[in-house]
Amino acid sequence: MTSLPTPRPAPRSPALKVLLYVALFAGAALTLFPFAWMLLTSLKPFAELFTLGFLPQAPTTDNYAQVLQKTEYVRWFLNSLLVAGLSTLSVLFFDSLAGYTLAKFDFPGKNLIFILILATLMIPTEMLILPWYVSVVHLHLSLNTPGAYLSIMFPGLMSAFGVFLMRQFFESLPNDLLEAARIDGMGEFAIFRRVALPLVRPALASLAIFTFLGNYNSFLWPLVVIQKPEFRTLPVGVALFSGEAGTQWGLIMAASSLAVIPVLIVFAMFQKQIIEGIVLTGMKG
Amino acid sequence: MTTRAPGLPRRSLSIRQRQTLTAYTFLAVPLLFFLIVRFAPTISAFRLSLFKYSILKDTSPFIGLDNYTRLAQDENFHKALLNTALYTVIGVPAQIVLGLAVALLLGRARLFQGLLRALYFLPYITPVVAAAWVWQWLFSPQFGPVNTLLIWLHLPPQNFLTSPSQALPTTAALVVWQNLGFQIVLFLAGLAAIPRSLYEAAELDGAGGWRLFTGITLPLLNPTIVFSIVTGTIAYLQLFTQIVNLNFTDQGGPLGSTLSVAVYIYQMAFGRYEMGYAAALTVVLFVIILIITLFQLRFLTRRIEY
């Protein structure tokens, strides 16, 4: 747990201090209430759903058992894991290579290239989806196994945000280190791989987590492009299942909980890098 | 280029030429990606918008600007535009004000800062689909806990997502709740970067809390706030997942009250397969995002000297 430096000192009077913490914890409780309600509802038997008690009287894991029986949850989860994992590896490599080049090399067209990459952030996803879809359909890509995964994945193989983030970090690397390696006769790619990359490990960790979460939670494009049920990713699977479940809120909440739990585990493990990533983006924004 | 005899080793290139060569080698794959996956489809979408294109039909006649004259008269699209403007106007300021308020308080908390930050951050990493279904259940008119609470407080229960006037704000509230954690962390970072000596000097001059906030905190946070406004606006103008999952059977909400531009584009393209018309709609969305973003960057950024 890292604490950022506090710009203003903590309040001096004990009464104000208590008030500050009461306000902060009340806000946090309000923020977390939907999660608590989701988990509690997922443990209620159907008969209890509409009785409005906060705690389940007769808690049951029956909803979870049903979701796992009725749906391909494990398959969805593995699909999401595969798609998000491969996208993350690709983004890490290519975005850091591009960010490094834009930060540490001087060449004609450098600023133009950077601006063009950043400008892609302004293109709405909806606009790109139609031509992507037409191409995927014409290539009959989404019908066979490797093609289906590729068609879900390709839009996220690199990200403009990642190039921007990595460029910010490489800018602050001292040039002397790289020059020293050059004098030692190291090749340019080896310098990037063995000198520069290890020095920006925190940034890589942040980028990895953001990219992974972004792709794991992605909805619109997978919804459009997935044609066969066995290729559904977790959000698409959960949305379609919930849409069919009607008023079986216990099942819907169990499915939602199952979608949230893996993310919570990742967050618990990498909280520091996630927060640091935003902090560093914000500092230099 | 210096002339060099063929077969000479690359040593004869100047340092600058070698740098350029390496740079373009390293950038080759990323550049190709951005050209093929981002720029080319953008141009395709412009082209597509000039055709009556349906993936189901073999012929797709060129119809010039007909799609654009059609959208100029399409009342559903106008409704979607208006709703999208409402989402943005409600959501962006709300998440910035709330995020800044919590960040200011958190910034003064010594104990539990990391823990509290993590708690506020959780909704941000939750899959939107799951969050939206939970929201639907929370605000359900008959059985939702929110209405239970209202009844318990002797207040009239509300229809929320099934009411044409309340469905949009309830949807916007979900997005704000999900984004709040991100905003808080961003503002905490911005606040931490403000030199403390500035506050100390101002306090010696007898400035009170409000003066410190308007005179030091706000101006120095300007870059962070601008970043929030710009990225927030771009996201709200493309609102889709929350809306679809809050009203799975009727994606436009009660009387079309939650229909956004993105949802309407999706319905046209993948519900009715009118790809050409949908493409024209995306072109309009693109132009709107471009104008608003450039306008914001031009008029909101100020250079601060201290």
Automatic annotation (TrEMBL), chain A:
Residues 77-270 form the ABC transmembrane type-1 domain. One of its GO terms (cellular component) is plasma membrane. Belongs to the binding-protein-dependent transport system permease family. GO terms for biological process: transmembrane transport. It comes from Deinococcus ruber. It is found in: Cell membrane. Coiled coil: none annotated. The chain crosses the membrane at residues 18-40, 76-100, 112-134, 146-166, 203-226, 246-270. Its main location: membrane. This is Sn-glycerol-3-phosphate transport system permease protein UgpE. Keywords: Cell membrane, Membrane, Transmembrane, Transmembrane helix, Transport. SUPFAM superfamilies: MetI-like.
UniProtKB/TrEMBL annotation, chain B:
GO terms for biological process: transmembrane transport. InterPro entries: ABC_transporter_permease, MetI-like, MetI-like_sf. This is Sugar ABC transporter permease. It comes from the Bacteria. It is found in: Cell membrane. GO terms for cellular component: plasma membrane. The keyword Transmembrane applies. The keyword Transmembrane applies. Its main location: membrane. Belongs to the binding-protein-dependent transport system permease family. Residues 81-296 form the ABC transmembrane type-1 domain. It is a multi-pass membrane protein. The chain crosses the membrane at residues 21-40, 85-106, 118-138, 180-199, 220-239, 277-300. Keywords: Cell membrane, Membrane, Transmembrane, Transmembrane helix, Transport. PANTHER family: ABC TRANSPORTER PERMEASE PROTEIN, INNER MEMBRANE ABC TRANSPORTER PERMEASE PROTEIN YCJO. Pfam families: BPD_transp_1 (PF00528).
